[in-house]
Amino acid sequence: MQKLSLQQKLLQKLSPQQIQVIKLLEIPTMQLEQRIKKELEENPVLEIAGDGPETLQEGEAQELKSNEDADKEEFSVEDYLNDEDIPSYKLNAQNYSKDDKFTDIPFSVGSSFHEFLHEQLGLLPLNEEEQLLAEYIIGNIDEDGYLRRELESIVDDVAFAHNVEAADEEMYQLLWEIQDFDPPGVGARNLRECLLLQIKRRDKKRASVVTATKILKDTFDEFTKKHYKKIISKFSLTEEELKDAINEILKLNPKPGSAYSNPLNKANQQIIPDFLLDLEEGELRLTLNQRNVPDLHINDDYLGMLKSYKDNKKTQSKTQKDAVTFVKQKIDSAKWFIDAIRQRQHTLLLTMSEIINLQKEYFMEGDEAKLKPMILKDIADRTGLDVSTISRVSNSKYIQTHFGIYPVKYFFSEGMQKDTGEEVSTREIKKILQECINGEDKRKPLTDEQLAKILKEKSYPIARRTVAKYREQLDIPVARLRKEL
Q: Per DSSP, what are the bridge partners of residue 114?
């Protein structure tokens, strides 16, 4: 049995305009440029301010005007609206002869790492089956140059996909052939094997190379854990001999695949700052980077077209009414997009201005010690915006200052109180921690407990586990792994 009832609900929904503003707020300047280009392609009503005859030279402007006058005589709006009735042959250009030659100009593109390995594989005297197995091995080598799959699993794959049975000995023989390829160390199954493949190609007449080979073969675990005394005792070495051998090992590449770099394939990521901050006569001046972001406006021709249709509303045909509806939709879409761009600019400037006001001492000199504790809520309270909006502004945005380019989120950090009651940024503590580690005796590195004691003497009451957390955030290894001879 069906039953009808009435209910009242209070819901919050985002309008299409609000969603558009949020999406534009998230993207950085470089992506905004692409987004504007896409909108210009999709919406004929939208155009870049300044486009038109006024931006041309005097002669070009006169020529363009004469062409426009000729067009007005030949075409009307009715012709444009009824273009579906135009015969197809009038829309096709036959400007080429059968005798014309079309030559494709090849574009030189460098080969990838795996293509480089396949090129070397082609130089080996292999039969069809061995070629197939070797290609499977190369296909399982990752971008670092390592073979991280078991050969037995590769054998199973080949048997399942191609019904080819291969012996383990045959696979190992092919792998050893591939391990002789360039770059040295390719095809290794672990770090130890990778380093051994590389040291094998060094000059074995040098004592340091011979010692380095022994260390990698027999005492690799002790080497990785920096138990140097055990290595010296095992091989009866002096500290100088051990140091020379370690230097040989440090010259090796733990990721041989990264050694093969082709400039034609390398995608260099360029940072384009969203904000520009200048220090002029002791005053900070903030601007948005609008170098590649054009000013937009609505094409006057479409507004005039809409006005003419409005004046002749009674005599409009169905096709004309559809055209009016289309133009209205595109004009509304263009207005929303322009408003969203303006709102984005206003929100970005407002947020960044408050960050600079709060961190003015830091931005004047660029000294990290003067960076105050600041979280997203602090800026949200000062701007009257939501925390999520501040998060969108700070994410993937950069600012160019007179002392470098920084991500906006770099300026946000938690705070803690010193013994004196003064609140300081955790970034300041990390800087002091970094300085302590940089100045330590590398033969006897400072432990986390010793670092905590030093910070406590400097009025920073930090526990050992907090020191360990900050050290890991700075990507600094433990004391044992920082030890040097």
A: none
Question: Which has the closest alpha carbon to 155: 143, 177, 140?
Answer: 140
Residues of the chain with CATH 1.10.10.60: 415-482
- Phi, psi angle pair for 179, to nearest 5°: -70, -10
Question: Is residue 179 within 8 Å of residue 187, measured between CB atoms?
Answer: yes
Residue 34 C-beta-side C-alpha neighbours within 13 Å: 4
Angle, in degrees to the nearest 10, between helices 376-383 and 318-358: 110
**What DSSP element (H or E) covers 405?**
strand 404-407
CA distance 82 to 25: 41
Q: Residue 152's CB: how many other CB atoms inside 10 A?
A: 9
H-helix or E-strand containing 401? Answer: strand 398-401
Strand 46-48 relative to strand 296-298: parallel, antiparallel, unpaired?
antiparallel
Q: Residue 465 has which token pair?
A: 């586990």
Residues 244, 215: contact at Cβ < 8 Å? no
Q: How many CB atoms lie within 10 A of CB 116?
A: 18
| Residue type present at position 273 | P
Phi, psi angle pair for 425, to nearest 5° = -80, 145
Mean pLDDT (10-residue bins), the chain, 485 residues = 77 68 79 84 79 41 44 42 44 48 51 85 88 90 90 86 83 91 91 92 88 92 88 90 90 84 56 87 86 76 74 67 80 85 89 91 83 87 89 87 88 74 75 87 87 86 87 86 78
Exposed/middle/buried for residue 186 (C-beta within 10 Å: 0-12, 13-18, 19+): buried
Nearest of 259, 262, 222 to residue 242 by alpha carbon: 222
Question: Domain 415-482: which topology?
Answer: Arc Repressor Mutant, subunit A (1.10.10)
> Closest Cα partner for 297 from 341, 328, 259, 255?
341
Asked whether 379 and 254 are in contact (CB, 8 A), the reply is no
> CA 63, CA 60: separation in Å to the nearest integer?
5
- Candidates 115, 113, 187, 182; CA nearest to 147 is 187
How far is it, in rounded angstroms, from Cα 123 to Cα 110?
19
C-alpha to C-alpha distance for 331 and 47, rounded to whole angstroms: 11
Cis peptide upstream of residue 87 (ω within 30 degrees of 0): no
